[in-house]
Amino acid sequence: MFTTNQPRVCTKDSFSASCLKILPAPSEKSFVDSILAYGNRQAANFKTLTNDEYIFYFAIGSMINPISLHLRNIRPIVSYPATCYDHQIVFCGPNGMANIESALGESLEGVVHLLTATDMDTLDKVELFYNRIPVTVTDYSNQTQVTYAYQIDLSRLSNLEYSLPSERYMDIIIKGCEYYGVRQAYIDRLKQINVVPRMKPSEYKCITDVPDVHYTLDDLVLRNGTNNYPVWISVNHKIFEHTGLPSPDDPSYNQLSTTYNLIRNLHAGKDMTLKISQNIYEPLYGIPLTEDEMTLEHRSMAEDTFLTFISNPKLGDKTYWRPIGKLIKSSSEKCTPNC
């Protein structure tokens, strides 16, 4: 049984408190205007006289939310709501990910973020299952702008089907829409979409058969896939080692390879617990700035998130990661994984 002082309800007050806790002050209008002066409404990319590149990005999923952006170190120069006509939002894949589809006569709302090329590159690395596509949007002053949106890459996800988004994911989208002033009618539409309810803490996936072998952070850092070392990661005080991939002709190879490369490129030789809580922002728990601020329940959610991400239901949830021991972060610390 897990205990926490936090209610399992995402409230307006808790979201506002998180925003006040971590979000920086908005950019000065004069600075924004000096950059927008180089923009072209017929192009998503533009450069200034100093050769700095900026990109208009149309967010429809979790990147609508300012906290989700901040936790990925993405700082929009300016953001504003807009409508994309002849397209619709759908939810696809095993986790009900937001996707944009062409649909004559339909429309969806989102938020345009003006990003630096560096921040856009960061997003490209995070959104590995998506491709950037150009779409034209109309802001609430009836001005059009060519932007980029992310559309799911069918070559990286097999048998893509429509599915329900999670309650957590929809909370993030709705809170972001409210924050940036997206039309209430669209927010009301989102609230009517069926969702997969949040799991109870007792339902979280948890590895219990972890060898009673202790490793330090130094041990973990070495195992980053270089110098003939294997790839290790840690979640919730448990260390996992990657055991390899199936043969390239295996139907699950592309998806497992993409998953592995994402983990290796971003997390090899590292503890993922705090990073998961930031990348998979859960409004219920607010924003932990350090791992010490995470509750036991939040840690368990991070482990469940990792185990779900690496599993393949078609293989009976078989994974290519095995638990090999427990992480000790200091000489005085006792390793007591909480499940």
Structure description:
Its EC number is 4.3.2.9. This protein is an alpha+beta fold and about 350 residues long. The termini are close together. Mean pLDDT is about 90; it is low at about 1-10. The chain has a six-stranded antiparallel beta sheet. The radius of gyration is 21 Å and the shape is globular. The chain has two domains: about 10-190, Roll (Hypothetical upf0131 protein ytfp); about 200-330, Roll (Flavocytochrome B2, Chain A, domain 1). It is about 30% helix and about 25% strand. The protein contains ten helices and eleven strands. Helix 9 (about 275-280) crosses helix 10.
Defining traits:
11 strands, G-Glutamylcylcotransferase, 6-stranded antiparallel beta sheet, alpha+beta, GGCT-like_sf, Hypothetical upf0131 protein ytfp, 2 domains, Flavocytochrome B2, Chain A, domain 1, 5-stranded mixed beta sheet
Helix/strand layout:
Layout: H1 12-22, H2 29-36, E1 45-47, E2 53-59, H3 66-71, E3 78-92, E4 97-116, H4 117-126, E5 130-139, E6 144-152, H5 167-180, H6 184-191, E7 214-216, H7 217-222, E8 232-235, E9 238-242, H8 253-267, E10 270-271, H9 273-279, H10 296-310, E11 321-328
Parallel strand pairs: 7-11, 8-10
Antiparallel strand pairs: 1-2, 2-4, 3-4, 3-5, 5-6, 8-9, 9-11
Helix pairs in contact: 5-6, 9-10
Keywords: Lyase
Protein name: gamma-glutamylcyclotransferase
Organism: Didymodactylos carnosus
